[in-house]
Design goal:
Number of helices: 5
Structural class: mainly beta
CATH topology of the largest domain: Pectate Lyase C-like
Helix content: under 10%
Oligomer: single chain
CATH architecture of the largest domain: 3 Solenoid
């Protein structure tokens, strides 16, 4: 009914949507689109279907796990977790999984990231990068505070755990101070303790002055228990200067003792342990510290480029523990170590010793089979009355020094080399110094070689082979226990089966044309009924010579002995031969003989 103001439309089958009033903007248009097509209305309880496009800018509550298809495995789960948290996506910008230093790392909660890269300790770039991962509990070390190396607390009471490599560790990971302003003893100890039991290498990359106020211990052995830790190598960056000349450039890495007087050593290898290393470190005692480093029953190690300067005690020590303290009296020597290019300079302090090798008085263990290459020792005890020693050998056996140099301005009470038999008269034995030189500054009064006590008759001599003698640092041929490169023949008891046989052999081949003295001592140990034994020599100085003792040994009495010496001139490369000649022997005598040699010039 056209024109009516109201009423019902009774006869119309459809009403155009455009004629509907009260609809919101766009509703009339949406009603004209098939359901499921872009722009159509959503049916309550229905699905979106598969629209070819659309805009969900104002949609809320869309479930990620069921409402979005086409996601890769684990993506929906990651989208449901907080950014930069465990199992969540890392974001870039204000929040990153990389921090500049340790302070920034410790300010993060454990939920910050699954892993964080720390690019420095105090400041960006002052250490090698190190990766940390969060733990679900407080740090196990330091009562929750961590150890300052591999564990650091998070801001929420948990712990950041370092993912350390299996090879080389950066010393800066422990925050060592290289400015000389604070002690590094605790920090370096923590770094060493954090290494695996089988050890590893700690590289000190930053040059500087590293102070120490207490001893750093490597290994946990004692006089009764072998160490459970081994294989720790400390390596400084670059080389150190061979001699501590003030005008020379400073070494890259210097370990200085700033602790109590007579304290130290700076570093102690506490065995019994196998495997250790120390390279390119300049130890400075400040005329206060006792020693640079010590090897306590530490074997199979290597050291190169180490300087020990201005220590007032024993600068470098190799020693051992008695085997009596170990189960089954196990023997743990300090042995098979190689130490090369080491320089030691003692201070002008009473009792200062450069290098000492010693073991227990019972002689059950000792420093043995160690090799020193290009060892330089400067004895600095110039003040009258101060006793100083370059190399001190006591209970030590079969150690080799190749091209050693012992020198200095040492006073009358000081010595270049000391052999101490007072502790155990069998030792020192069979140690060899080959090449190099014994020297003194011109005019000083100290002795080159000195002995304490007397060696037991079965103790093998210590050899000085081809060492030059400079500025009056002469090696006396009569020094007890020293052989200047010549052998000794001994046969303490000649068995009865050999009692009627002459004995002979080559004593030595002359290394130079020189005067030599050969002495023999014969003793009857079991008396026979008749017979004598006499000592003989043959040699060549251009003419063949022979000598037979004019006082033969009487083999009929155990109270009898015979001794004789002969000085001879032997040409280079000619043999000097010996013999024990028997005459008229009857019965069953037994005898012994000892033959010693020495070069006189």
């Amino acid at each position: 009914m056209k024109g009516a103001a109201g009423g019902s439309v009774l006869f119309s089958t459809t009403v155009p949507r455009t004629d509907l009033s009260g609809l919101g903007t766009g509703i009339a248009d949406a009603l004209g689109i098939n359901v499921g097509i872009v722009g159509s209305p959503i049916i309550n309880g229905g699905a979106l279907g598969t629209p070819s496009g659309g805009n969900l800018a104002n949609a809320t509550g869309l479930p990620i796990s069921t409402g979005v298809s086409g996601l890769g495995a684990g993506v929906a789960t990651a989208l449901g977790n907080a950014a930069n948290s465990a199992n969540g996506f890392a974001t870039f910008g204000a929040v990153q999984a990389v921090v500049a230093n340790n302070t920034a790392l410790s300010s993060l909660p454990s939920t910050y990231a699954t892993a964080v890269a720390r690019l420095g300790y105090y400041a960006l770039g002052d250490s090698e990068p190190l990766i940390f991962v969060p733990s679900g509990s407080a740090c196990s070390l330091g009562a929750g505070a961590g150890n300052g190396v591999t564990q650091f607390p998070t801001s929420d009471g948990k712990c950041w755990i370092a993912q350390t490599p299996n090879s080389v560790w950066d010393a800066a990971w422990a925050g060592l101070d290289n400015t000389g302003s604070s002690s590094n003893s605790v920090k370096l100890q923590a770094l060493i303790d954090a290494l695996p039991d089988k050890g590893g290498t700690i590289k000190i990359n930053q040059c500087g002055f590293y102070n120490f106020t207490s001893t750093v211990h490597i290994g946990n052995g004692t006089s009764t228990t072998p160490s459970t830790r081994r294989g720790v190598h400390i390596v400084g960056n670059g080389d150190v200067m061979l001699t501590p000349v003030p005008a020379a450039p400073l070494p890259c890495v210097q370990f200085s003792w700033t602790g109590p007087a007579s304290g130290g050593p700076v570093v102690s290898f506490d065995g019994p342990l196998n495997g250790w290393g120390l390279e390119n470190i300049y130890f400075y005692g400040n005329n206060s510290g006792a020693s640079a480093f010590q090897l306590h029953a530490a074997s199979d190690g290597y050291s190169r480029g180490v300087v020990a300067n201005n220590f007032i005690g024993h600068s470098v020590v190799l020693d051992t523990y008695s085997s009596a303290g170990y189960p089954g009296s196990a023997v743990y020597n300090t042995g098979r170590n190689i130490i090369e290019n080491m320089f030691i300079a003692t201070s002008d302090h009473n009792g200062a010793i450069g290098l000492i090798l010693d073991g227990p008085a019972d002689g059950s263990t000792d420093p043995s089979l160690n090799t020193f290459i290009n060892l330089n020792v400067s004895v600095g005890t110039l003040t009258p009355g101060n006793v100083g020693v370059g190399i001190y050998l006591a209970v030590a056996d079969t150690n080799l020094f190749i091209n050693p140099l012992i020198f200095g301005a040492y006073s009358a009470a000081s010595y270049g080399l000391v052999l101490d038999y007072s502790k155990n008269s069998i030792y020192p034995t069979a140690n060899s110094l080959v090449g190099g030189a014994l020297a003194k500054d011109p005019g000083v009064l100290g002795q080159a070689v000195f002995t304490v006590g007397s060696p037991y008759y079965t103790s093998a001599p210590n050899y000085l082979n081809g060492m030059q003698q400079v500025n009056g640092a002469t090696i006396s041929p009569n020094v007890t226990g020293i052989s200047t490169d010549l052998p000794r023949i001994e046969f303490p008891t000649l068995s009865a089966s050999n009692r009627t046989n002459n004995q002979s052999g080559t004593l030595f081949q002359a290394s130079m044309t020189s005067l030599y003295r050969v002495c023999a001592y014969l003793t009857t140990q079991t008396a026979g009924t008749a017979g004598t034994a006499s000592f003989s020599l043959t040699w060549n100085d251009g003419i063949a010579h022979s000598f037979t003792s004019t006082a033969p040994l009487d083999l009929t009495s155990t109270a009898e002995t015979s001794s004789d010496c002969r000085i001879l001139l032997a040409n280079v490369s000619t043999n000097v031969s010996w013999g024990i000649n028997l005459a008229g022997v009857t019965g069953t005598p037994a005898f012994g003989y000892y033959i010693t040699t020495e070069r006189l010039n």
